[in-house]
Amino acid sequence: MNHLLTLQEWDADRIGNVLDLAEDLKRNPDAYVNAAHRKVLFMVFEKPSLRTRVSFETGIARLGGDAINYDTSTSPLGAGKESLEDTVKVVSRYADLIVARLFEHQDLETMAENATVPVINGLTNFSHPCQILADLMTIREKKGSLKGRKLCFLGDGNNNVTHSLLYGCSMMGMHVSVGCPAGSTFEPQADVLAQCEKFAADTGVRIVVTQDPMEAARGADVIYTDSWMSYHIPKEELEKRVELLGRFQVTEEIMNEAGPESIFMNCLPAQRGYEQTAEVIDGPQSVVFDQAENRLHAQNAVMLSLLGHGG
Fold first, then answer.
1. Has this prediction a pTM greater than 0.90?
2. 116 Cβ partners below 8 Å, 6+ apart?
3. Is 149 a catalytic residue?
4. Is 131 a catalytic residue?
5. If you ran DSSP here, which 8-state letter would residue 272 be given?
6. DSSP secondary structure code for residue 250 in this structure
7. Candidates 3, 51, 131, 169; catalytic one
8. Please, what are the domains in the chain?
9. Radius of gyration from C-alpha coordinates of the chain
10. Identified catalytic residue from 267, 276, 291, 299
11. 5 three-class SS
12. Average pLDDT per run of 10 along the chain, which is 311 residues long?
């Protein structure tokens, strides 16, 4: 069974094919109006969502299919009356695809083990592959190619977006620098770095983790940041995290260090004055809303790929 749980489980050819398909979907939407005719997408959300939910619902509708949003707060699953395994086995008899936005990545793996239809990771605490496919698509649009480009991530390096960026960029031949505070709280997980170093060796690129934000940003084609307060972070941690992450805020000085041709990305939601200044996210180098739009096209390509459509 084909799934999209992390980008680690795909390869560069498959990622490239999905990006090609996503670009064609964006250019020629009318060619795909019945590509998922009568297909049903079942969506499970444990976390709040704007882009993931709306882009998947809109996407399957534009492909000729339908979406069901399953509210766990009013379900037997959420009430503890039915197991995750049984829920997925039942849903697999009704739907053609499952997308899940969950707290625990292990729960997503359990879903995939028990599903007889493809499972798509809509976000877990470990990985966010759909976001990074949209990001790679956006970088190709703005820069023309991925190979040899440099992406710099600044902020909390131990999160789902950073891990997925490391996988996707190293596999596709992009250099990656991560600027973050030292220590296991904020640095990318060691096993992720080890695997991505192998990908980087194969594609001839470098991965650097540094506590110097200027060093990380120097010469980068892409400056990327994410929220300092992910959904699983307690609100009482805000003051401490602002103190530790403040020097990794993306400012105009950081963008100048990257260069005038660099682009700024944030997967959103964003808080101006925290992970980036308002001047950066609302400035001419920002592509955050193009990036958000491309969630729709990249995810449509993922769904069609998992349904067996080559484009």
1. yes
2. 1, 89, 92, 93
3. no
4. yes
5. B
6. B
7. 131
8. 7-128+295-306 (3.40.50.1370), 131-291 (3.40.50.1370)
9. 19
10. 267
11. coil
12. 94 97 98 97 92 97 97 75 92 98 96 98 97 98 97 97 98 98 97 98 98 98 94 85 97 98 97 97 98 98 92 46
